[in-house]
Design goal:
Helix content is 28%, strand content 33%. The protein has helices spanning 10-37, 47-51, 54-64, and strands at 67-73, 76-82, 91-99, 113-115, 118-122, 128-138, 143-152. The strands form 2 sheets. Strands 1-2-5-4 form a 4-stranded antiparallel beta sheet, with no helix packed on it. Strands 3-6-7 form a 3-stranded antiparallel beta sheet. A hairpin with a 4-residue loop joins strand 6 and strand 7. The chain starts with 9 loop residues before the first helix and ends in a 5-residue tail after the last strand. The relative contact order is 0.14.
Amino acid sequence: MSQRKGELTGGKVLAIFCSIFGVIIAVNAFMAYSALSTFPGLEVQNSFVSSQGFNDRLARQRALGWDIRVEVAEGELKVHITDPDGAPAEVADLTATLGRATHTRDDVTPDFIYQGGSFRAPVQLDSGNWNLRLVATSSDGTEFRQRVSFHHRERGA
């Protein structure tokens, strides 16, 4: 029996099968490597230690009744912190890290100044999703921590 040209043989089926699964495995390996190499890391060093006293800290933070609003316009980041009455909250200290949710290479620490009832800092942001991880201290020493996620769209984009 002679083989005709273009006939599908067992060897060809095996080669097709191995090629398809080879591509699938290569793509999965690349995606796993990309996910792991761009993961920003841990939120806290020791989650057990961090969890001790969490409910007490949360209760003190909620007792402040603060509301946070973030806006970015014309190269300026504005953080509005208001008390339960809607008036600017009495904030003794504010620090924050601004960055992407998926990596840390764009992280910056804005240099805030208090002006007109809000904290302001110059920033240059690309379009997309951003996180502001802020730590504020009230005038009585209560620490307030919050992560604010927002979407920024450049003008003309």
